[in-house]
Amino acid sequence: MPNDARIDAIDARVLLELVRHPRATTSAIADQVGIARNTAHARQNRLEENGALGSFERRVRTESLGYPLTAFVTAHVMQRRLDEVAAALTAVPEVVQVHGISGDADLLIHVVATDADDLYRIAGRILSIPGIERTNTALVMRQLVDYRITPLLQRAADE
């Protein structure tokens, strides 16, 4: 996201309404925020275009798809092969998110699995990707804080 794409308080209020009411019409959002419908529409379009508003893909609980286990795999990667590794990870359906990180490891890979044997298979598949030198897998025992953005949006809306 470019630096000039920083959201202001009105943008934050528009986004809060979208979080609270994902199926709301532009007119409903405009009414709640106290702006004109065309202004709300233009702001939503700008937020999408500049990357501030990402995919509208709904968060589906992986447990409901038969994947009750969540794990994080850290990977050490040959840097010259990072793009190849990223492409290969994209081809693994159980990989739900990958972050390039600083520190001891290069990648933090969020994976889901059906059971321990499936996790073993997935970890092996990741390790077999050319360019990955070694991995370490940590099983999530319990999620304590779900993904959330509302507190940050609220702070921005109040500024």
Descriptive account of the structure:
With 159 residues, the chain is of the alpha+beta class. The radius of gyration is 20 Å and the shape is elongated. Helix 1 (9-20) packs across helix 2 (26-33) and helix 1 (9-20) runs antiparallel to helix 6 (150-158). The mean pLDDT is 93. The chain has helices at 9-20, 26-33, 37-49, 82-90, 116-127, 150-158, and strands at 69-77, 95-100, 107-113, 132-139. The chain is built from six helices and four strands, in the order αααβαββαβα. It has a four-stranded antiparallel beta sheet with strand order 2-3-1-4.
Defining traits:
159 residues; four-stranded antiparallel sheet; 6 helices; elongated
Summarize the structure.
This protein has 159 residues and is of the alpha+beta class. Helix content is 40%, strand content 19%. The chain has 6 helices and 4 strands; from the N terminus they run H-H-H-E-H-E-E-H-E-H.
